[in-house]
Every structure is written in C-alpha cells, then in structure tokens.
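Reply to dn_fold:

You asked what the input looked like. This is it:
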Amino acid sequence: MTPNPTTAQTPEQPSPAPPVKLPGVQPCDVATATPAQRLAIGQLLADSFAAAYPEDPPLIPAQEAQALSQLLPTERHVTFALWDAAAIGYARLAFDTEQNTHLGHVRLTVHPQRRRAGLGRALWTAVRAAALAHGRTMITFGTDSRTPAAGAFARNLGATPALPMRQSRVTLAELDPDLLTRWQTRPDGDPYRLHVWTTIPDAYLSRMADMMMVMNTAPRGELEQDDWIITPDMIRSWDAMIQEGGETRYLMATEDTRSGRIDGYSEVFWHPDRAALVYQGATAVRPEARGQGLGKWLKAAMLEHAQAHCPGARSMQTHNAHENAPMLGINVALGFTPYSTFTEWQLRL
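and this is what came back:
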C-alpha cells in the first residue's frame, strides 16, 4: 500500500540551536571600578594562572585586584572587561606618555572555561582601537608555552615572535655549595663591595638608576623599542608598589670603592603568601666591568641569600633570551633547568 503523501511521517528533525549571544566588551576603568569588580578580575587572573601552572603557589585574587591600578607617574592604562555573572575576560593596554611613545603593551586574558568562543578576538578588537586612538603604532605582548593557544592566537593576529626566552628553575636545596663559595671568593685587594638592600638608600638612588639602565644592553631580539631611561622617581614608585603588595625585593649591588660607581646588580622578588617560589628579576653588569666575575658573584650570593631569608622557598625562577649566551651559561652552571618558553611578540598596527 502506497502511503498517502499528505499523511506520511518523515523522521523528526531537530530544531536548530538558537545563536549564542556573546557578552559584550565593556570599558573598565580599574581606578573607579567597584571593589567587587576589581576582585572579580583578580579571580579571573588567578584562575587563568592556576590553569597554566597548577603546581605553583596560586595567585591571590585580592592581591591581583590591588595591583590592577598600580601605575608609574608617566604610565597610562586603558582596560576592558567581559562579564557574565563573573569576569570572564580582561584586556589592558599600557603605555608611557614620555618614552617609546610608539609602543603599547597588551595583557589579554580569557577564562580557561570560556576560550575558543571569540571572546579573545573581541577583546583584541577593543584594545587595538584604543591603541590607535592613543597614537600607538606598535603593540607588544607576551605568551608562555604553558598556554599553547596563546601563541596560536598571536600568530593568527599576524604578530611576530620578536624575543623568545627560556624560563628556567633551580631547586634551592640542590645547589652546589662549593660552587657558590668559589663564585663568591674575591681576589686580594678587590675594590668591589657588595651591598644588600630591600630599599635602595637615598645616597645610592641616582647611582642605581644609572646602573639599571645597563639593562638596555641586554639582547632585545627584533623588538623595535628605544632605550628606556630610569629615574629615581620611577624606582621609588616601584618601591611603593612592592610595599603595597606585601612583596619583598632583595637587591644586591657591587660598588667600585675607588669611584663609588655601581658596576653590577641583581634583584629577586619573594612574597610570604607564595613562599615556595622566588622570582629572579634583572641581573646586569656594566660592559666595561665585565670579565671580573661580578655576575657570578651576584648570582651566587643572591641564591645563598634566598636560602637564608626567604622561609619556605623551594625554587627560584629566571628567564633569559635565547641569544643571551653569557647569562644563560651562568644559570646553567648553577643548575637552572628549562621550565617553559616565554615569547615577547610585536605587531605593527
């Protein structure tokens, strides 16, 4: 029997799913945002960090929220957020009003559970427009190999990997004490004196500002940026930020007692709430003072200092440009091993 076409049944077809409406990007001035909004962004940053580094001491949302509004005197931020009951995306454009005025640095984060839905692209569109509005022609930002999707996102934007770096760690309990002793043994009549500070004394502030600018000689790969000028006011602003965040910075400096000039320095950062990990900051020696073991002395002395003055610390993390063979060689000799890769990207607008 041939079925009646007017009564025949066809297989039931599923109704098309309604289009997903993405949250809209909103400007978010962290200076005037409510405490709850800042804390929500701090929670977003902590969740993103935990997804990439589950074995590390977690970030503390309240501390991240506090740091959102920290600025140098000549620095400006333009920030955006995505909200869906909580903060699910955040982007910040940072730029200096007096130096490298062609540059803007971007930080962009999407919650790990909300990625691959176009939210990152929406934030990027907003932050790119802000950069152009403020006359920036080059954008830089960093990605870590612990979040592979970030590198893929950077390439999709058309960015160039301008400065690849190796992130390394050493277990403090596994350091070679004999090596540390040898590297800290100075020749008879050595003119250099080692200082250890948490805050640079006023009498040394100008000299340290001059010393810190030696970091302009560090490899910068393909990054198109001019030298940075460091001022005493900038250092004091950094000091205030460190103190406000409850962090401790240990800074070691080698002074040539014949001239009073600072010829080398190294600094680390440690927080008692995240005590297990010490972060190595800059280490630099003046070009004309190299070859005298100052870099090895500073690094060895700082590792011993961290062992003695950072209770609960188990590891120290540092990063070096792949092309910075001298400093990388010092770290390898000390026992630092690869942990991840960090890449500084740049994109011309």
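Residues 1-20 have pLDDT under 50 and may be disordered.
Hope that clears it up.
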